[in-house]
Amino acid sequence: MDMGSNWAAVDEYLVGKLIGDADPLADVLAANAAAGLPAIDVSPVQGKLLHLLANAARARRILEVGTLGGYSTIWLAQALPADGKLVTLEIERRHAEVARGNFNRTGVADKIELRLGPALDTLNALAAEESAPFDFVFIDADKQHNADYVQAAIGLARPGALIVVDNVVREGRVLDEQSQDSAVQGTRRLFDMLANEPRLDATGIQTVGVKKWDGFIVAIVR
Ligand SMILES: C[S@@+](CC[C@H](N)C(=O)[O-])C[C@H]1O[C@@H](n2cnc3c(N)ncnc32)[C@H](O)[C@@H]1O
Questions:
Q1: What pLDDT sits at residue 1?
Q2: What is the DSSP string of the chain?
Q3: Model confidence at 21, in pLDDT bands (50, 70, 90)?
Q4: From ligand 1's centre to the CA of 183, what distance in Å?
Q5: Distance from C-alpha of 139 to C-alpha of 109, rounded to nearest angstrom
Q6: Mean pLDDT of the residues in the chain
Q7: How far is 51 from 79, CA to CA, in rounded Å?
Q8: Do 70 and 102 form a contact (C-beta atoms < 8 A)?
Q9: Residues 142, 65 contacting (CB under 8 angstroms)
């Protein structure tokens, strides 16, 4: 077995032991695949981690940047109390349509507001609305803008809120200063920003699994 298939097999074992016989949101992934969406959602164990973190933070208001078909959105929405709310931001109309279908099918649609458009614009609009602060933010859209998304998230979140940013290791390519990949350069800008951001207390965790070698940042707003 190569390392990649080992990681995937262990993920499957973890799902079987800790989540259920199979991914409870497998239908969502099937709907995404049928609609031709790319399979770039978080993995089942990562989705469950987001769910547990949102629960631990007693999140009532969640912000997500990057919806795709709503797989991570639904894991998070299922951690909300009955009167909780999740705002998720997506630029692609087609992704948003598929996500809305998934929200309806999984019974979480009433908790979710999907805003279509470039996330930077929507984040500015949210700031102008001065709505209640968010308790939990999950950032998983275009990696070029990650530093801007985190800055906006700090302004929209309450002190003590959790901010999670996905895909920050990129199979180790984050170390490549000369990378021509804008996602790598965006990730490096994010780390440079975090290194000098006194309003956040952060760590980074490397992960392996069905999504190969990657990692995420977890930060608390001071
Ligand atoms: C990695 S996928 C999100 C996966 C999703 N969080 C999940 O785990 O199920 C990234 C999504 O961000 C969207 N996206 C990319 N650039 C964006 C932007 N500037 N504003 C809003 N959404 C964007 C993409 O269309 C895509 O659907």
A1: 66
A2: --HHHHHHHHHHHHHHHHT-SS-TTHHHHHHHHHTT--S-SPPHHHHHHHHHHHHHTT-SEEEEE--TTSHHHHHHHTTS-TT-EEEEEES-HHHHHHHHHHHHHTT-GGGEEEEES-HHHHHHHHHHHT-PPEEEEEE-S-GGGHHHHHHHHHHHEEEEEEEEEE--SGGGGGG-TT---HHHHHHHHHHHHHHT-TTEEEEEEEE-STT-SEEEEEEEE-
A3: confident
A4: 13
A5: 20
A6: 97
A7: 5
A8: yes
A9: no
For residue 96, the CA-to-ligand 1 centroid distance in Å is 10
Cβ(68) – ligand 1 distance below 6 Å: yes
The pLDDT, as a whole number, for residue 134 is 98
pLDDT of residue 187: 98
Atom number, ligand 1, closest to the C-alpha of residue 95: 27
State pTM to two decimals. Answer: 0.98
Query: Would the CB of 92 count as within 6 Å of ligand 1?
Result: yes
Would the CB of 123 count as within 6 Å of ligand 1? no
Residue of 49, 65, 142 with the most ligand 1 atoms within 8 Å of its CB, for mutation:
142
Could you identify the atom of ligand 1 that is nearest to the CA of residue 37? 27
Asked whether residue 3 carries a pLDDT value surpassing 90, the answer given is no
List the end-to-end C-alpha distance of the chain, in Å, as a whole number.
44
